[in-house]
Amino acid sequence: MTNKDETCWQIQNVRVIDPFRGIDSVEDVFVVNGHIAERTEAAGCQVINARGLWLVPRLTDMHVHFRDPGLEYKEDLFSGSQAAAAGGFTVVCTMPNTRPVVDIPSLIHWQITRGKEIGLVHILPIGAISKGQQGLELADLYQMAEAGAVGFSDDGHPLVDSRIMRAALSYSRTLGRPIIQHAEDPLLAAGGVMHEGSISHQLGLAGAPDEAESVMVWRDVELAGLTGGILHVAHISSPGSLEALDYAKRRGLRVSAEVAPHHLFLTDEAVREWNYNPVTKVNPPLRPDTTRQLLIQAVIKGLITVIASDHAPHHEDEKNQSYKDAPFGISGLETFVGTIFRVFLDAGLLDPLHLFRLITVGPQEVLGLDYPGLIPGASADFTLIDPQMTWTVDGQQFYSRGKNTPLQGTKLKGRPIATMLEGRFTMRDQEVLV
Ligand SMILES: NC(=O)N[C@@H](CC(=O)O)C(=O)O
Ligand SMILES: [Zn+2]
Ligand SMILES: [Zn+2]
């Protein structure tokens, strides 16, 4: 290697936490020409002393909304990629509820190509299950898979029609890619803007019950049994859904679920505390503390194997409407790591290796990806994290166009301080490098 060449790095004395290989130890990591290298290959590298820092490969967020094409005023592939790099992620999966909906191979292809052109994060698109996400007719899943779709979802909406859901799950089995369901019975949830319970009653806001989610999860589990298909439950948030998931696992079905950081960290109390500010309005809604505890336990037990942000940026003018009229969603990429550290590490509920499984190996298994971990030849995709850094959330500082965060002003400990993608830093010292 040449000396000053930026294509060679030695990251010294870093705590390598590699869930892909189950390793947690202090080592030096070498990067040559975009790949992890053996020590011996690396002469004359740029050296980074990373004592006290953690290095984790391939942080993956399998549920983000980048709003591109069509709703770029909320977020586009560029600003979303910046938010991902700032948040420490090297892989994101984009949801297809754009305008137009991503339901044809050319749009999958376009998102991948544009993502590579930006070069800040691997963008793996999710295609729609139904044409236009209308729930009436199956989209061409096969062609979208050929174009690179890693899964299928009508997220933003539930797929209500049981016959179409059955067909989609049958396809998923053959294609080897999951059907990701936003589980919500639209009639039961109709009009609900927060969790139905004592707080919604006190505040006089229309609530949606837990069961609006769980009745559909139970149905989908039955359909996964019928078809042998691959079902992944998006943003799981209710006790009944956890029961259904547990039942599915005991039956040996190919069913998995993800939980969002906000459902692990916040409760419906936040709706009261924020005094009707729609910054807490999200779908599914923030739940009571008893449910939050159940979700945390489900993660610890290994029932839930993925944490995903459901990063849902919205424009300030939209979020500034009344609680009833504002759109659902939280901008979550840039607070993700700090939030799950608060929930699991500060409380001593999980060790780091286990926690990082949920944003590396967990999503990789659901999506059928094959990153091998930090072995020589693997793409140098990793994140350096300062586990001691304390910081205060300020949405106005986000790279995301969506400044909508109910964590505004919250103190977090632990922060990604550098992100490397294919051997190039995409973020260093909180600054995204384009
Ligand atoms: N989660 C949300 O509250 N909003 C998402 C839609 C979704 O994930 O269902 C969005 O697209 O804004
Ligand atoms: Zn959803
Ligand atoms: Zn979503």
TrEMBL record:
Zn(2+) 2 binds at D155, H182, H235. GO terms for molecular function: allantoinase activity; dihydroorotase activity; zinc ion binding. The keyword Manganese does not apply. Belongs to the metallo-dependent hydrolases superfamily. DHOase family. Class I DHOase subfamily. The keyword Cell cycle does not apply. Residues 55-238 form the Dihydroorotase catalytic domain. Its cofactor is Zn(2+). Its EC number is 3.5.2.3. This is Dihydroorotase. Substrate binds at H65, F66, R67, N97, N283, H314, F328, G329. The gene is pyrC. The active site is at D310. Pathway: Pyrimidine metabolism; UMP biosynthesis via de novo pathway; (S)-dihydroorotate from bicarbonate: step 3/3. It comes from Sulfobacillus thermosulfidooxidans (strain DSM 9293 / VKM B-1269 / AT-1). GO terms for biological process: 'de novo' UMP biosynthetic process; purine nucleobase catabolic process. Pfam families: DHOase. The lineage of its organism: Bacteria, Bacillati, Bacillota, Clostridia, Eubacteriales. Keywords: Hydrolase, Metal-binding, Pyrimidine biosynthesis, Zinc. Zn(2+) 1 binds at H63, H65, D155, D310.
